[in-house]
Amino acid sequence: AGFEIKTAESKQEKLQAKIAELTSSITTAISKIEELVAAIAADDAELKSATAIRKKENAEFTKNEAELMDCVATLEKAIRILTKEIETNPAALAQIDTSNTQRLVQTLGAVIDAAGFAGADKTKLVALVQSQQGSQSDDDQED
Hints:
Layout lengths: L1 H87 L12 H15 L3 H24 L1
């Protein structure tokens, strides 16, 4: 019976050591779970914030896009009218007062800025308008 008691006590000690080890593992796992819960909560808050920002940016983009599309439609209409006028009466545009060409360049610059043209494209377009202004000024001086 003494041997069985020693065997049982040895088993009890091993089981108590295993219980202590598993209790420690449980404590570690609970700590890790709490860390993950906190990280998920932080990520959720960050996601909500990012979603709100994206919605705001999308609304702003949509508004700007609509304005630009309206500007493009207006410019296309102006081009059609001017093209039609040139076809009908080519000399009519020669009578235009070119003193306001600088204002046209400024207006085009604002439209180009709003449209987000690449820097090189913007420079080329403004240079084209200014060269047209320069050649018209030269023509006016010759008259």
